Amino acid sequence: MINCLKESGIDAGKIDELIHGSTTAINTLIERKGAKTALLVTRGTRDVYIIGRGNRPEAYNLFFHRHKPLVSRRHTMEIAERLLGTGEVHEPLNKANVAAACKELKDEGIEAVAVCFLHAYANPEHERIAGAMIRKALPGVYLSLSHDILREYREFERMSTTVVNAYIGPKVGGYVKGLKASLNRIGFKGDLSIMRSNGGVMTPEVATEKPVAMMESGPVGGIIASAQVGLALGFPNVICFDMGGTTAKASLIREGEPTLAPGYYVGGYASGHPVMLPMIDVVEVGAGGGSIAWRDDVGALKVGPQSAGADPGPICYRGGGTEATITDANVALGRLDPDNFLGGTMKLDAEGAKRGIKSKIADPLKLDTIAAAQAIVEIAINKMSLAVREVSVAKGYDPRDFALVASGGAGPLHVCAIARELYIPTVIVPLFPSHFSALGMLLADERHDFTRTVYSDLANVDFGKLVTVHDEMVKEAKESLRHATNSVFQIQLDIRYVGQEFTLSVPVELEQLKRGDRQAIRTAFDQLYEHRYAHHSPDEPVEMVNIRLGAIGKRPKLNFPSVTAGGAAAPTGERQAYFTSASEPLTAKVYRRDQLGAGAEIAGPALIQEHGTTTVLFERDTCRVAPSGELIITLGAVR
Amino acid sequence: MNLDTVTLEVIRNALPAVANEMAADLQRTSYNMMIYEVRDYCTALLNTKGELISQNVGGVSHFVADLGVLVVDGLQRYGKDGFKPGDVIITNHQAVAGQHLNNVVIYMPYFYKGELLMFLMVRAHWIDVGGSSTGFGAGATVADPWLEGLQLDQLKIYEEGKLSEPLYRVIKDNIRFPESSLGDMKSQMAACRLGGRRLDELFDKYGRETLLAAIDHIFDETEQRCRNVVSKLPDGIYEASSSIDDDGVLKGEEVPIHVKVTVKSGSMIIDLSGCSAERKAAINSRTYAGARVAYKALTGPLDPVNEGSFRALDVVIPEGNIMMARFPAPMSGWSGIVPTVVDCIVGALAKAMPDRVPAGHHALLGGAVVFFGTHPKTKRRFVVQSIEGGGWGGRPFEDGESGTVSVCQGDVRNGSIEGIELKCPVVIESRELRPDSCGAGKYRGGLGIDVRVRNLVEGKWNFEMPRRSKRPPWGIRGGTPGEPGGYLLKLPGEKQFTMRGGSHIPVPIGSEAIVRTGGGGGWGRPQDRDAAIVANDVAEGFISAAAARKLYGVALRGNLSLDEAATKLLRKRLGSASKAKPTAQVKPKAAKKTKRAKKTKKAKGKSHR
């Protein structure tokens, strides 16, 4: 990155702000290259981290695997101490135990320590005392206390999140510090920010203490950018759809705000590590340009999740690939121009793609090559549509109320077909769709999320206490916020019917808490429940479990230059390509995106080519170029 | 009907998605931990022949494809014209359903353009159905279904959208936690309605003919997939047996489990005739679950389930068998023996597929934690419930997992300690692995666990779970068995824990109970296990230094480092000893060539009334 800056010739001293997204955190975990980590727990809970929830999500699999612990059992130490759910001390902390553990960990050469005591979310005192002792006894050792990382009940999930943080802490912390030092050396004096999984950014200091918060920052940029593009064009509700080489991702944005999930499992739900920090809710499916089409043992046609990747890549890349991929199918259908891929810098082998599809798929299925190519693309589209459904329909949102924003190299190729599948009326293809993620990072606000478990019937909840807890979280947030002057705080209460386990996060106003407005909160919960599950029970008692605070430091938005208005769109040529029907090709007009002026209108069938991608307009789809350059496509009604 | 490749693949993906979406909806809106943590439910679509179109994945496995008998029975009662849009049927009657009464099925007919085409169904474990059913269900000592709880026999709780008030009130007045169970009923209905909306979309999009033809095609190809797997096994008859210590009523009398599996050119017959006859104790059932779970695990564990999944399987269970018991044989502990049956079937096939069969697992439906009472301050009733996993058997290439739920349970989660303590007046003193509870082997079994619970107010314990101390989880190929589980109790003033059993056992404040789960058996000879790995097991505390020495022939020095010279000597001695004493518990009979599959009487899950 430093080299990149140097080569670009930009004067580092003139950069006001630099935002960095990195896969260091997730890679350290996945490659298991983290620190030698120890775990201190309440007596009797040494094996909670190994046992987890005892479940086997793959119900019939005799060879399933549980998560593979990051801390060995011999480095998991029990400390005599016990708190109750109310926070009261059932058994005081045995400091001699902590001291003995420290000594042993020192002898073992431990590099990081996680501490997770039962009910520490309710009363962090024991963790704090133990933490202070560890800092003193083991200077230089990376320390994570569970209540600092996640102040929420459910010990295994909190323990796992804390362990992950400690495990990746030294490496990621070192990386962030190193980056800052290198930037300073080349004269950078501005603010460095680190992208985090919740869609916001944080300071390098916060990132060093809570590296687990940057775990899934990869796909986040494109989602933020989609939200901003949608807002700017008057579509506050959008679903972003990103399709790259191996996977496609979908995420929902409402009123310009990305949807957050309370946590996720690194490595998958069945065998992964729970990390219960808010992250942008993304549904991912194994369908990308490189996804391979194959037939299973009874001859059913499948696409993905195996991918030819970049090496050997699709057949048409001439890199030695022999399996038919989604990209090959698009070339065979004429939707991708073999002579104009990546601005014509890479000539694609269209005949090779067709031969591969014929021999691997078409002949065994007794289809002609074009029909087989069409089938490959349609199956991929259906798979991706299921992902879009999962973020919308399955959460109670009607996709017809949203616009679909396409990004990634393969997104614009498929987006109109997906929109049609789900009756989404409008598609937006932003500028630079294949570099959308970096753009989004520039637009991200600073964001910190806090949670406290406060367990009470709503009827008896002590609102004074809630306001106090809220004020504490705001105070903590302000210490982390760089732009505290321009900050917004969002409060949510996790509420459920008494007896349920899962909660809904209900947005509330601080004034409602101060007034003790139970009725308004109750009504908001019932309405949200009705929206999400299509039924509710206004007469049944409800209880709250957590209070959440999202602290957002607003940053100034970037303004992009508008595109000059041009006349009518002029095609650069024509090509035969297959669209809705595989039986006959249509003559499609071909456009170069960089030649389109604002206000230009195009009717499908058409292909709009640019350096990293091609936008496919089907029959009856129409496209207009926005003043700021985005393609706004209105879907033809017919499926 | 001409079905194109794309339409087929799309429908193939869409149908399981409907059932899964119903399941997600149910789980997140349910009121009892049996649904949201134990996932003791299933959601499914069936056609009017009772054939399974799709079922959710991930929940408890023993509900696999078990709703068909209810549709067939319902159609016999009401006739095809007897179902109307807006009808909601509730049933748990054992004559047909064959499970404990807590498993309440709610189903709705699905009409498309006025034609009855399918049924949307949700079976879910209610926390109480009256009688002695509180929690996981009544124990094995319940004498009959009337003592167990409320029996509901294919009744319309809604008729054309109108609630049957009298029925609703009868249910409400005869169960202990009506707000919970009737809340769950609401969630079950909402899940069915959601499934109906999704089916509307599919029928609208593809049309009646195409969708129904695609479903038939999917059944056929699923069947073919299973046959492809089974046809790779050598034809033959494979047998195995085990037993449960006793049925809880006749103390000390073993309950035999015997399975016979016949493989013949891609077909499989699983014959459970050799299992016990129906018992006076409530461990009876009417279920194909044992055979089907095993078959599914062998043929396509990660594929969705439909009617085709079991077409190439014949299950033979004669009427009057413990798993084809006749009403009113008590069934409140219906599922307890099923994991052992599954394990026997899988174990029997070890000869046929040596690279795909693990050693025996704890084979109980988890260590059930059930403590209940009324809080003296709030006067509210509480139930502490959790399912604790045990050890799984060593596998042909790696160790078994520790502390994991049985083969009949999938995404079944234990209760979090903090969650339990927030809701109930107990302190969970520990949840820990039990060193040396695993069977030894080249690949050792997983460890069982101990959960210790201290009660802060008085209440009652249920210590009900079939035990297998005489036939603990077996080792194979020279591996040793795992240690069985059980329940232990220590009352205030007592010095030691003692083994206990039974239900509704009152305990005073400050008692402590241990819920103990078994360990898994070992795979292969222990002396073949890499000595460095054995040394690491000792350093990690999974096994003791004494066990390393005695079972594995591995000697360690005082600092737990490996003493190679002494180990070599010990292993030499073990090697000659082990030849004399094989340790396998299950000895699959040598595969005999079948001349002709033995003529078998096939039991259908018909009702008997």
Task: Give an overview of the whole structure.
Chain A is α+β, with helices and mostly antiparallel strands and 639 residues long. Among the domains of chain A are: 24-189, Rossmann fold (3-Layer(aba) Sandwich); 446-553, Dna Ligase, domain 1, CATH 3.30.1490. Helices cover 32% and strands 24% of the residues of chain A. Chain A contains 17 helices and 32 strands. In chain A, strands 10, 11, 12, 17, 20, 21, 28, 31 and 32 form a 9-stranded mixed β-sheet that branches. Chain A has a 4-stranded parallel β-sheet with strand order 3-2-6-7, sandwiched between helices. A 4-stranded antiparallel β-sheet of chain A has the order 22-25-23-24. In chain A, β23 and β24 (504-508) form a beta hairpin. In chain A, α9 (220-232) crosses α14 and α10 packs across α11. The mean pLDDT of chain A is 91. Chain B has 609 residues and is an alpha+beta fold. Chain B folds into 2 domains: 5-225, no CATH class; 355-583, no CATH class. Chain B contains 13 helices and 20 strands. Chain B has helices at residues 5-29, 33-36, 68-78, 145-148, 165-173, 178-206, 208-230, 289-299, 338-348, 417-423, 531-540, 545-552, 564-580, and strands at 41-47, 52-55, 88-91, 103-112, 115-125, 155-159, 162-163, 236-244, 255-264, 267-271, 313-316, 367-374, 381-388, 426-433, 449-455, 459-463, 486-490, 498-500, 502-507, 512-516. Chain B has a 7-stranded antiparallel β-sheet with strand order 2-1-5-4-3-6-7. Chain B has a 5-stranded antiparallel β-sheet with strand order 14-15-20-17-18, covered by helices on one side. A 4-stranded mixed β-sheet of chain B has the order 8-9-10-11, covered by helices on one side. In chain B, a hairpin with a 6-residue loop joins β12 and β13 (381-388). The longest helix of chain B is centred in the first third of the chain and has 29 residues, at 178-206. Chain B is globular and about 80 Å long. Mean pLDDT of chain B is 90; it is low at 580-609. Classes of the chains: A alpha+beta (639), B alpha+beta (609). Chains A and B meet through α3, α7 and α12 of A and α1, α6, α7, α8 and α10 of B.
